[in-house]
Design a protein that fits this description.
Number of domains: 2
Keywords: Kinase, Transferase
Number of helices: 10
CATH topology of the largest domain: Nucleotidyltransferase, domain 5
GO molecular function: kinase activity
Protein name: Glucokinase
Helix content: 25-40%
Family: Belongs to the ROK (NagC/XylR) family.
Largest sheet: 5 strands, mixed
Distance between the termini: 17 Å
Shape: globular
Structural class: alpha/beta
């Protein structure tokens, strides 16, 4: 039996998991990420892998972006100031003495869903996670599409609404500034609503609150525009949706499928298929293991 290690490095915590070829998570460990000294985190990772007690084929890693996936370099993640321009694959491989592959979290989740989750059996799988932010990935025959420089599917800053809302470094009218959970909550709070997350905004909308209804309508309508554009450009077999907004708001998946069907050519409506992601929060770790086993 071969084993791989999947790692999710976050701005707060790092998760390390031992995964077998059946994509079962056998062991896992979580500890605080050192945002200033990556060498400390790397050594903790190496110690954790050694404690697993198995020889591993390699390590798949997700890390906050932006990332240079071609060269395995962490660029300028705002929540990891000491990691800027870090050649992660080279340095972590040196510490752990096994090959390391760097990938972004949405791509890894996409790969897991395409290989063993909701997209299994389909050739072209378009993945979207609608949560704190919006992330996407495209798998073609279980291979991730990266584009020429590794930045394909980085859609958060795609503009859909002229002079629309913005947040952080994103441009006005960007899709993440409209349809992400953070954006929905922010717009509701700016409208004077007392809410803590997008689900509460949706609840108010169902109760007839006019401001909440408009915010949810904007979020769903512009997201449907994005998905219909994906359909026109990429012709995916299936859309797989994940993230707290997509999974926790009742009827969200079904409504998105209906909206997208109304935005494509009538003759193509029956081809549009939008489904719920099947894998849980370990999907990124599982995708990392798949990447290692099929490198």
């Amino acid at each position: 039996m071969n084993y791989a290690v999947g790692i999710d490095i976050g701005g707060t915590n790092t998760r390390v998991a031992l995964i077998n070829e059946a994509y079962e998570v056998l062991q896992r460990e979580q500890f605080a990420t050192d945002p200033l000294h990556p060498a400390i985190t790397f050594q903790r990772i190496a110690d954790t892998i050694a404690a697993f007690g198995h020889t591993v084929k390699g390590i798949g890693v997700s890390c906050p972006g932006p990332l240079d996936l071609v060269h395995g370099v962490v660029l300028t993640p705002p929540n990891l100031p000491g990691w800027h321009h870090l050649p992660l694959t080279k340095e972590l491989s040196t510490v752990c003495q096994v090959p390391v592959i760097l990938e972004n979290d949405a791509n890894l989740a996409c790969l897991a869903e395409a290989a063993i989750g909701a997209g299994k059996g389909y050739s072209h799988v378009q993945f979207l996670t609608i949560s704190t932010g919006i992330g996407t990935g495209l798998a073609i025959d279980k291979q991730l599409f990266h584009g020429s420089r590794g930045f394909a599917q980085e859609i958060a800053n795609c503009i859909f609404w002229k002079d629309g809302p913005s947040q952080g470094d994103l441009k006005k009218g960007s899709i993440e500034s409209i349809s992400s959970g953070t954006a929905i909550t922010k717009r509701a709070q700016e409208a004077g609503l007392t809410v803590a997350h997008a689900g509460e905004v949706n609840d108010l909308a169902k109760q007839g609150n006019v401001a909440a209804m408009q915010i949810m309508e904007d979020a769903k309508e512009y997201l449907a525009n994005l998905m219909a554009t994906f359909y026109a450009v990429l012709d995916p077999d299936i859309f797989v949706l994940s993230g707290s907004v997509a999974l926790k708001i009742e009827g969200f998946i079904e409504e998105m499928e209906a909206r997208v069907k109304e935005k494509v050519y009538d003759a193509l409506k029956d081809n549009v298929k939008v489904v719920k992601a099947q894998l849980d929060e370990d999907c990124g770790l599982i995708g990392a293991a798949y990447l290692v086993f099929h490198a």
